[in-house]
Amino acid sequence: MKVLVACEYSGTVRDAFTAAGHDAMSCDLLPTESDGPHYQGDVRDVLHIAWDLVISHPTCRYLTNSGVRWLHDPRPKFAGRWQDLDEGAAFFKLFLDLEHVPRVAVENPKMHKYAIERIGGIKPTQYVQPFQFGHTETKQTGLWLKNLPPLVPTNDVEAEMRAMAKKDTHKVHYASPGPEREKQRSMFFPGIAAAMAEQWGNL
Q1: Collapsing DSSP states into helix, strand and coil, what is residue 48?
Q2: Which CATH number do you get for residue 36?
Q3: pTM reported for the whole predicted model
Q4: 73 near 62, Cβ under 8 Å?
């Protein structure tokens, strides 16, 4: 299967598909952090290729429900927030509208209502949690799926996670302010990536 993993520089999902024997490439404006096929640049440069599957992680900065309050913040530094939302939603919808790709998955946290409106009212096919795939952490993640079955949990460790301190199970929420915070909050989990490769790679 020929797989494009868009908006990924970690190589997490790409490497999972490569390990499963697929021809996978990641793409991002940043260089890859893991050796492997990677296109550094605008994903629109490579979307025309005949991919069998596109998995995309478009930035959630202006779409996520946790940041909706900044849309109504009167301070000058948030003055362009609505325009940023429009552009972010248009980029997200670019992947939902891929007609030449038979199978598509788009990943994002829970969206606020304004973002949902801008992508045509399309809600995610399912939500998954990292603790369903072997990680003792919580981070609700939406998956918008085209011609793909919902992911089936592979290793549910919720009971173990519930017994742990919140600072260890809600690392995304408790990430310290600083230049690395956005990177930490956007981290994708290898257990979910492995499930994608195993469950979607044989279709």
Answers
A1: coil
A2: 3.40.50.150
A3: 0.90
A4: no
Tell me the C-alpha to C-alpha distance, in Å, between residue 69 and each of 15, 63, 114, 183, 186: 36, 11, 11, 21, 19
Round to whole Å and give the CA distance between 55 and 148.
11
Q: How many domains are contained in the chain?
A: 1
Find the domain containing 113 and state its range.
2-200
Divide the 203 residues of the chain into consecutive groups of 10 and give the mean pLDDT of each group.
Answer: 97 98 98 97 97 97 90 90 96 97 97 96 98 96 98 97 81 55 69 98 89
Q: Is the dihedral of CA 90, 95, 96, 101 positive or negative?
A: positive
Tell me 43's DSSP state: G
DSSP alpha helix (H) spans, the chain? 12-19, 81-96, 113-118, 158-162, 166-169, 181-185, 190-200
Six token digits for residue 33:
């952090």
